[in-house]
Write a structure and sequence with these properties.
Elements: E1 2-3, H1 10-22, E2 29-32, E3 42-45, H2 47-61, E4 67-69, H3 76-87, E5 93-94, E6 107-110, H4 112-118, E7 130-133, H5 140-148, E8 153-159, E9 164-168, E10 171-172, E11 177-180, E12 186-189, E13 195-198
Parallel strand pairs: 1-2, 4-5, 4-6, 6-7, 7-8
Antiparallel strand pairs: 2-3, 3-13, 8-9, 9-10, 11-12
Helix pairs in contact: 1-3, 2-3
Length: 205
Amino acid sequence: MVIASEGRTVSERIHAIRTWWESDDSAPWTVETSGSTGRPKQVMLSRDAVRASVRASADRIGASGRWALAVPPDFVGGFNVVVRSLAAGHAPVIVDDLNFSGVEADFLSLVPTQLHRLIETPDVLRRFHTILVGGGPSDAALRTRAKDAGLNTVATYGMAETCGGVVYDGRPLEGVGIRIGDDARIRLSVPSRRCRRTRRTGSGP
């Protein structure tokens, strides 16, 4: 089991993810949940599950290429940015403090608060083929402003247990089932259960 460590720099975390991604070892990668629904937990992601997630995302977007990393790679959203870029044959470009000067990449993932900050200067975002927006609710007005500014944003919904976003703009990715339960909660189903939640044990190496 490989665990992301908060003591590492972003570059070191990317290197660790690359080493795992390119390894033949069957050990899963472990990410932390955000704790938005309770105590943070750890979720183990198998390489097969991550590869399936990468393929499904690329199929829905309709393209693949270099990604810009503007969210922490310790959580599933940032981790996915890294592996999507590696799968396309590119190291991700690290974005410091939302400064896109000199950033050459095709895709970007943001949380809604970041998009709120950047929407005032949309020129820096028009270079991106697609901008995924997840990790929290994005209001319709923000999406409308982004569209009017010429930005191709896609609202994503998912969680660490589903290897990240599995619903793009309200449509489930290939092989993903979605329904609203009697308790009004969203129920997701994926082709196979390859991610496993563990108890929080603290940071690892």
